Amino acid sequence: MRYNFNITAMIYSSELIKGTLKTIVLKLLADNSRMYGYEITQKVKDLTFDKIQITEGALYPTLHALESDGLVTVETEFIGKRVRKYYSLSPTGKTKTKEKVNELADFMNTMKFLLDIPSTSNLSTT
């Protein structure tokens, strides 16, 4: 699913992204089976038309935390002389992804109510 944003040239603040990064990563892994770090950053940029840009400094600690929590598993592959780590959801991660996405959706609805934002948004799917 791709999104079209009516507002252009706005990059979301790292403060907003920080609180949703685990959910973003979990959902991407649910939708794409397995991914490596750079691939995750590029997919987010592509899907959001560069509005969300995840740095390696934010992504890798998040991936390590998800691994420590047992939500993702890691496979190492050698690509030439380089090592590439592929991340995928564990069975627990699959369940947790649904919970996190539902929690974030509920939070966004609560924020719309709290901030008195009309139910129509600047976000439409294509």
Task: Describe the protein in words.
This protein has 126 residues and is α+β, with helices and mostly antiparallel strands. The chain has one domain (11-100): Arc Repressor Mutant, subunit A (Orthogonal Bundle). It has helices spanning 14-18, 21-32, 37-47, 56-68, 91-114, and strands spanning 3-5, 34-36, 72-79, 82-89, 123-125. The longest helix is centred in the C-terminal third of the chain and has 24 residues, at 91-114.
List keywords for this structure.
alpha+beta, single chain, globular, two-stranded antiparallel sheet, 52% helix, 3-stranded antiparallel sheet, disordered N terminus, 126 residues, Arc Repressor Mutant, subunit A
Q: Briefly note the CATH topology name.
A: Arc Repressor Mutant, subunit A
- Helix % is 40-55%
Average pLDDT, to the nearest integer? Answer: 88
Gross morphology is globular
Number of strands: 5
Q: How are the elements arranged and paired?
A:
Elements: E1 3-5, H1 14-18, H2 21-32, E2 34-36, H3 37-47, H4 56-68, E3 72-79, E4 82-89, H5 91-114, E5 123-125
What is shown here, in short?
The protein has helices spanning 14-18, 21-32, 37-47, 56-68, 91-114; strands at 3-5, 34-36, 72-79, 82-89, 123-125. By secondary structure, it is α+β, with helices and mostly antiparallel strands.
